[in-house]
Each structure stands twice: as C-alpha cells, then as structure tokens.
Amino acid sequence: EQANIGVVGLAAMGASLSRNLAHHGNTVAVYNRHYSRTEALIAEHGSEGAFIPAKTVEEFVSSLAKPRTAIIMVKAGAPTDAVINELADAMEPGDIIVDGGNAYFEDTIRREKDIRARGLHFVGCGISGGEEGALKGPSMMPGGTDESWKTLGPILKSIAAVAEGEPCVTHIGTDGAGHFVKMVHNGIEYADMQVIAESYDLLRRGLGMEPSEIAEVFAEWNKGDLNSYLIEITAEVLGHKDAKTGKPFVDIVVDQAGMKGTGTWTVQTALSLGTPVTGIGEAVFARGLSSEAALRDEAASKGLEGPDPEGAFAEALKDDESRKAFIEDVRQALYASKIVAYAQGFNEIEKGAKQYGWDIDLGAVARIWRGGCIIRAKFLNRISDAYDSSETFGSLLFDPFFKDAVAKAQTSWRRVVSKAAEAGVPVPMFSSSLAYYDGLRSKRLPAALIQGQRDLFGAHTYFRVDESGAFHTLWAEPGQKEIEQG
Length: 486
Ligand code: 6PG
What we know:
There is one protein chain. The chain is an alpha/beta fold. Helices cover 58% and strands 10% of the residues. It has helices spanning 12-23, 35-45, 57-62, 78-90, 105-117, 130-136, 146-159, 177-206, 211-221, 229-239, 249-252, 262-273, 278-290, 293-302, 309-317, 320-356, 362-368, 379-388, 400-423, 428-441, 447-458, and strands at residues 5-8, 27-31, 50-54, 69-72, 96-99, 121-128, 139-142, 162-163, 166-167, 462-463, 470-473, 482-485. The protein has a seven-stranded mixed beta sheet, with helices on both faces. Helix 16 (320-356) packs across helix 19 (400-423). The longest helix has 37 residues, at 320-356. The model has no long low-confidence stretch (mean pLDDT 96). Bound molecules: 6-phosphogluconic acid. 6-phosphogluconic acid binds at residues 102, 128-130, 186, 189, 258-260, 262-263, 373-374.
C-alpha cells in the first residue's frame, strides 16, 4: 500500500500532525533526518493508524501515491530550504511540497516560484494550535495553486478543527498568501496576549489583587464577550501554584517575554505596506522592553521617578462596589483594544492582498480562526459576519456590531487609560489603541501642520483643502508667495 500523505520532520509538531492524519484514515509516510525519532513515533503510536516509516528521502518519496504530497515540519529558514530541495530532487512534476512551519511569506513566495519552475507545486501552509492543535485539530492557512488545493484540501479538511460544523481550513490564496495570513494571526496573538497582560497588571498593581483572585476574574470574563482560548488559559496560568515553592506561578517566572519573530515580521510588513498596526506594534515592543534586562536594572538603580500608584487607585479601592466598577472598566478597555487590534490586523491582510495580488476572503479567514488556533474566540463569529456583510468596508470598526461595542466601552476605556497614566502603570496597547481610534474618528488631524513644516524646511509641497494641485509656499519671500507645482 502507498501513502496518500507524508510528513517530514517528526519533532513535537510533525509527530502530532502525523498522528492526527493517521487517526483520520490517511496512510501517512513519515521521515525524519535521524531515524531514531521515526522509530520512537512508530513504537509509541504506530498502532493508532496506518504509517509507513522511511529511512531515506528516496524511500519516503517512493512510498507516496501520486500526486505525491508531503508536509514539511522542520525549522524555518535554512533547514526548510534543505528539505525542500531534497524532496524536489526526488519528486516528479505534479507532486506537492507543503511547508507547514512558520515561514516568512516572502521566502514562501520565492520558494513557490522556484519549485513551480521545476513543475512541482509548493504550498506554504500556516498551521496554528500548537502541539495539541496539531494532534486534535489545528486551524490551517494554505496558500499555493488551485490545483494543489484539489489534492490537499480533502486531506487538510480531514484533520482540521471544526467550528460551527465547518472545518477550520480554507485555500487562502496563491503562493505566500497562507503564510502571510498566519503571520498576521501571530501578530494578533501577540496583541491579544498583551491586552490580557495589561489587564492583569492593573488588577494586580492597581487593586492589589492576588493572582488567584485575578484568575477568577478571567474565568468570569471567559463566560461573556471575551470568551476565548487565551482568556481561558490565562485563568489557568494565574491560578497555578509553583510546585516547588507554593508561590503563585507568575511570581516565580522571570518577567522577560520571548519571541521567535512572527510578531516582528507582522509589524515590519505593516510598516512597508504603510498600514498602522499600533496594537501589534506595542505588543512586540512591550516584549522587547521586558527583555532589556540590563537596561531595566540600570533604570532601577537610577531610581527613575514615578507617581504613587495607591493615590491614583484610592477611588477604585474605596469599597467593593468601586472595585467591581474598576474591574468592569478594565474588561471594557480590554474588549475595545482587542477590537482595534483585530481591525488593524484585518486591514493589514487587505493591504497585503492588494500588494501581492491575492484574492483573500476576510470573512473566510475569520471563520477558520474560530476553532483550532491560538486566537480562537467567540467574537470571531461576529468578525466573519461583519466581513460577510458589505458595511465593514474600510474597517471592522465601521461594522454596526463593533461600532456599538466600542461606543459602549469607550468611557471605561478612557477612564482606564487615564487611571493607568496617573498611577504610572504602563498600558501601551490600551493607550495606543485608543489613540488610533481617536485618530481615525478625528475630522481634522494635526497632519496639516506637519505638511506645513515639511514644506517650509524641504519644499515637500502640500495639497490645499479648497483647490486641487500640489502647492509650495515661498516661505522666505515677503508676503509668502505661493506657487503651484507641476
Ligand atoms: C500558533 C502559534 C505558534 C507559534 C508561537 C510562537 O498559532 O500555534 O502562533 O505558531 O509557535 O505561538 O510565538 P512566539 O513568537 O511567542 O514564540
């Protein structure tokens, strides 16, 4: 018997994905550079389904039925390129190579072009949901040709998470579209995690609540509009006690957030596309600042001045009712900032699609994020509804549901941002998202003044509100003559 699908790279993600494929009736060829990993997989899980272990790439390729379809689950960068080349050398025209890692979408565009030139298909496929998702049902974002989707689609649908009866996978677009969308997914993941962290910080430092009490607040929030995987696991992390010391787990963890690059790519790409993703940007920068250990030590030793947080929270700490009111304000601030971050992320996908010539259905993207992935959340149902209606054109913030949600949240949101500033507790996402929202709704922005400055020092010209054409003012001339520039 031949395999209908193969997996190369059997570390945590690859092994879980192979088992998921086998659990759903696929015959799975498996290959790993070191055969011991392949042996371990077969020894521990071989009875779960049909596997064909291979010792060499040639053996792996010949165990696949045509069109041969192989998913690569190895480290992004050079290891991915190496495996792609080995496979392409052993495969034949019409075969399909799928990269399931977190590759940079520009690399995917390049690889797709190279592989297509050799007559094969190359599919960059974003896979979200971590190890558990890979095993029990991930959300998947494949790019590549329509033709490759014909073979790959049914296989991926067989293993995807299911949300509201639909598999969480769709053909995103050609070449790098899938990895692009996965990149933005990760940026949004960073933003989601950051707004949650800011909320925790305010409740901890502002209201002086214990992690276990805050865990209860998140568990409560998880029952409402904020219902999501990340809120759910936040309650779990905050409720967790360190086995060694009995202390709250969050208190024994070094406060320096790591990152592997996808959030940074999202922001770099947004900058190139000229689309503001302030929320994701602040989330990346906040992780960066947290990891500047030496600088933070230096700041501590220099004793940088700040206000007394207790003074700022005196009102909120007055009685139980005031505390509850402040907690609700924080919930609203989280919700509004989260909506802004998603609005910005979807705008980046829209801009990217335009720039790279992809036909991306934003409603479908929201639908496949409802299950399996790290940012899965109830409110993605609302986002898919929003993009399926025509009223969202331009921004999620224009959709009646979200417009109303933010309108209801804004007073709380403003109170939280000003309280935090008064208390000296950093809330970069809450405040920058609010600034974006206010900027977006402002009739006139001080950008007019910036245009004036640019024209004065560099003759960069400006447009007038009352006449068409580009103008330059001769600032040094008496009476400041204005000339129209060609
Ligand atoms: C997912 C995740 C996953 C990613 C991390 C990395 O969708 O399952 O995005 O792909 O490995 O979450 O994020 P860091 O940059 O924080 O390490």
